Amino acid sequence: MAGSATFGVAQxxxxxxxxxxxxxxxxxxxxxxxxxxxx
Length: 39
Description:
By secondary structure, the protein is mostly helical. It has one domain. Helix content is 85%, strand content 0%. It has one helix at residues 2-34.
């Protein structure tokens, strides 16, 4: 029971990780593109 629950949490984390990294990478670039004076 605990093993399957841990596997489910790990699977969920692996599924959400790319979106978290994309948001972390995209947000700063969006702010930078919105205000070209701030480099």
